[in-house]
Amino acid sequence: MGSPVLAAEGLSKRFPIRDVSMLAGRAQYVQAVDQVSLALAPGETLGVVGESGCGKSTLARLLMRLIEPDAGRVLIDGIEVGRNAASLRALRRQIQMVFQDSYASLNPRHTALEEVSFGLIAQGKSRGLAKAHAAEVLALVGLEPRLFAGRYPHELSGGQRQRVNIARAIAMGPRILILDEAVSALDKSVEAQVLNFLTDIRAQLRLSYVFISHDLNVVQFISDRVLVMYLGQVVELGPTAALYQAPSHPYTRALIASQLSMDPNRRVTVAPINGDPPSPTQPPSGCRFRTRCSLAEPICATKAPSLVRVAGEALHLSACHAAAPGSGHSQAALTRAG
């Protein structure tokens, strides 16, 4: 894949919970992200999927250093991002983020042109140069400046507001965009338009994306590789085609099986996953998916699985005892024998 432009090593974040247990001297925590590592190659789109509450958005904020990790580090071009203000400013020149709520992300008192030019002015550009560049970027994302530059957020549709958010991000000249559910609030026709122009500007501006979504169809369309999270941990990571055609982890298989089909003869009649996710304050021992997994065996409760290569796939990794030769799981023995 070449040297990564962005990497994370062992990122972890937990949030304290205030409840009656704290009165008894027992602080409780939500382990939102637990020992997550990833690498993003130049020009690549890495999709991140999982159920709500699995830690996707927390991971995005850790990569941006909007929140401080409890453990682990973030690297740009192999250089660790420090905790000092100068280092963080350098990071945010390299990485920009697009949030899910297109309306809440914009200042209601700023026009589209003012919103896109604001960051450039804050960096020291003259107001005239900043607004000229902002107009060029608005045109790049499909918003004709003559028609849209003077409009306020309430005068724009959801898709137009999200284009302003994307324009504001790319106006800063980043190399990496983190898109957190950036198209989930849009209707399907507008969603398709935004996905297509995101693909176009990635090639045109040589950007790399971390694309976070709960929609597996969208992630399959735009991503080169996919990272699957469950209860704060990475359970599978691999090239999009390999992961969708031959998912290794039972959770990934269940997610893909839960996709709705347009064919009435292929309707889902049995729930792909049983039960609700466990409490993130008290995750199960061993494999965190074992309480909902049909392949669970005693080894799954006593030992947490590691990410290991799937047979025959150098870049396809899975954290499942059933897919790891020598793990002690009966399915792993069958895999080895085959």
Account of the 3D structure:
The structure is a single chain. By secondary structure, the protein is of the alpha/beta class. The protein folds into two domains: 42-70 and 83-223, 3-Layer(aba) Sandwich (Rossmann fold), CATH 3.40.50.300; 234-259 and 284-338, no CATH class. The model has no long low-confidence stretch (mean pLDDT 87). Strand 4 (71-76) and strand 5 (79-80) form a beta hairpin. The strands form two sheets. An eight-stranded mixed β-sheet has the order 6-7-8-3-9-10-12-11, sandwiched between helices. Helix 4 crosses helix 5, helix 4 (112-122) packs parallel to helix 7 and helix 5 (127-140) crosses helix 7. The chain contains 13 helices and twelve strands.
The secondary-structure element order is EHEEHEEHEHHHHEHEHEEHHHEEH
**How many H/I helical runs?**
13
Q: Reading side by side through the largest sheet, how are the strands ordered?
A: 6-7-8-3-9-10-12-11
Kindly name the structural category.
alpha/beta
The fraction of residues in strands falls at 15-25%
- Provide the CATH architecture of the largest domain: 3-Layer(aba) Sandwich
Q: How many β-strands, per DSSP?
A: 12
- Report how far apart the termini are: 30 Å
The average pLDDT value, as a whole number, equals 87
The H-level CATH homologous superfamily of the largest domain, spelled out, is P-loop containing nucleotide triphosphate hydrolases
Question: Level of helix content?
Answer: 25-40%
Poorly predicted runs? none
CATH topology of the largest domain: Rossmann fold
Structural domain tally? 2
Largest beta-sheet characterization: 8 strands, mixed
Assigned CATH class of the largest domain? Alpha Beta
Morphology call: globular
Radius of gyration: 22 Å
